[in-house]
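Ticket #4471: structure output looks truncated?

Reporter: J.K.
Steps to reproduce: submitted the chain below (287 residues) through the standard prediction queue, then opened the result file.
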Amino acid sequence: MIYVILGPTASGKTSAANCLANFLDAPIINGDAFQIYKDMNIGTNKIEKSDPSYRRYMLLDIVSPEETYSVKQYQTDFRNIDINKYPNIVVCGGTGLYIRAALYDYVFPESETQDELFEDKSNEELYSLLKTLDPKTSETIHVNNRKRVVRAINLINQSGKSKSTIIEEQKHKLIYDNVRFLFINPDRETLYELINRRVDEMFDNGLVNEVKNLNNKYKLSATAKQGIGYKEVLDYLSGIISLEESKELIKKRTRNYAKRQITFFKHQFDCEVFLSSKELVEKITHE
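Returned output as attached by the reporter:
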């Protein structure tokens, strides 16, 4: 059985995954886009390496923050795991698109790059063109990721359809048997309190120093820089905003992100819904 634990940020997914994996003696596959990165720990609320449950994790700490990492790469890495070796597996994370791409018959449209057609265009001009042609796809690509922007534009030129349209037309089916989607969805007031508390704890635990060290150690990729908590602290360190402004901005953006996560999970997965991680664990362990 594959148990997929979903939920908005700060809802208690990691706690539920650790308890369930210990009960089932099962591995945990990370499904969070930024926990993929090494040394991005406090801002992603990653499980500590000293925690006994850390040894159960796969696809955690596998990529340098200098590298870009895509949904397609995650799909490949996930499917390279020999799922059949394990009686049970726990998948845990808040990046719904990663989890959907991994578990469903999800095909990524490809095109030739042909960057020479756009040599006279700046990154900003190309991104603006993509926003006009395919606004949905533009939301998933950073303005400076020129290669992906050009590919998305070329796909439209070559096929007559946008990447988002091609994806939406696919009838995605689960490629694995026996999958249960377990969705932790606290009431909104409780969730926002949990988010605000987590952000305060991140700063108390040394988020600013973590970002300083990352910035000194690595040439951070555009993807890594986009993590909520990291881009705001980078702006603080650059003198663009104050420390308090960065903290409040992280809280606001995290709340907005949580709303988008909830909407995605509700519409994309057939879920069993729980108000808390405790409720989820009690249900599964007493079946």
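Triage note (M.O.): checked the attachment and the full token line is present. The chain is about 50% helix and 10% strand.
Status: closed, working as intended.
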